[in-house]
Write a structure and sequence with these properties.
Number of strands: 22
Largest sheet: 6 strands, mixed
Distance between the termini: 39 Å
CATH topology of the largest domain: Heat Shock Protein 90
Shape: flat
CATH class of the largest domain: Alpha Beta
CATH architecture of the largest domain: 2-Layer Sandwich
Structural class: alpha+beta
Radius of gyration: 26 Å
Helix content: 25-40%
Strand content: 15-25%
Length: 456
Amino acid sequence: MNLLEVLKQAEGKSLEFKRDLSSPDGVLKAIVAFSNTSGGIILLGVEDKSKLVRGIPDPLALEERLANLISDCISPILIPEIEILPWRKTHIVAVRIYPSSTRPHFLKSLGPDRGVFIRVGSTNRRADQTFIDEFKRQARNETFDEQPMLELSSEAIDFRAASECFKSIRQLKSADLKTLKLMTLHQGRSVPTTGGILLFGFEREKYFPDAWIQVGRFTGTDRSRFMDTAEIRRYPVQAIEEAFSFIKRNTSHEIKIEELRHTDTWTYPLIAIREALINAVVHADYAQQGAPIRIAIYTDRLEVENPGLLPFGITIDEIQQGLSKLRNRVIGRVFHALGMIEQWGSGIQRMISACKEAGLDPPRFEEIGTSFRVTFFGAQKRSPTVDAVDQKILDTLSVKEGKSTKTIAEYVGLTTRAIRPRLRALIERGLVVEIGSSPQDPRRLYFLRSEGIQTA
């Protein structure tokens, strides 16, 4: 493990800093959360807020104590990698936790109902029953929308609506309902699946009251004033089209005429928006309550948000590289049959490519609370502006090779006392990263973040 590279990063879904093991509960919760979610690294010997590297005086004793705590306090059994890393005259203890195939893990002291934790952003959150149930389904290799709804019969599916959706593809037959897993056989009786009701159930809102799309157009950059809003409660395939029409109606576009031909240029690439809408419907966690799919259009951005974190074991970096794990197999199968999904895992990359081709910043993908959000930016964001002295500081720094305060001062032609407040300001603006053992550490180094800068 490259300790310096890890120290440059901020705490997040896969990284946590801990000063020591004086409060083991926090470390154990983080280990459980990482193992249940997408894995991660804990660095012991680094203060979690200041990122000052304090070190561990007796790393071997801490390693043994931590291994015993993990064995005694976590179930099912979990064996993370523990590595002692040298740092100047002291050491850091790094704990690498991988996504577990035997999740959910829990703290024995709290039990399997209250002791399960998941990683949400940079926090460890107690998993509610919805998440615990998802862990159990995952262990059985099942998805929520594949579950049979035993209290209903085949009459609960709106076959006419399903046929209408497939009209341009093929003539839908009753046998196709089972092939597409809209219906399933349970103890000799045909019953609809959860996915069948979500997609084409006559009383879908009775069983899934939050399975709808909320759309809104706001006048500024927040939700204080809106211009247009709607609740879209149609079947998902039609709801996507209605939401798409709402977005087109509430975003601007230009008509360019070249050689007697005209082309429409939209604020946001329509192909990227459609992919985001389809992704939101296909990957929403319909087991969650109280949160519909939401689309918010602001003056500077467009957000598409669906309930549900990324499937356990997958990170945002991985989905941008094309890795995909389908949360709802029935919905995904139907959308694939309808030609709305071309290839598994390609939607995110198409969004990124479409924005790049349009000359826009790439979309931002993030987990907010227990939801997943895609944000599109309508215009290229300006990089932070810096003055001539700050630019000289940035010029001397490197993403890979850090520089000391003294070296930077000599290059810029100022005293170290004059350089320090400028470095602090650049750190606060997110342009520079600092690594050291204390604020007075004479050996602390500064690194350039890999972001574009504009000079004043």
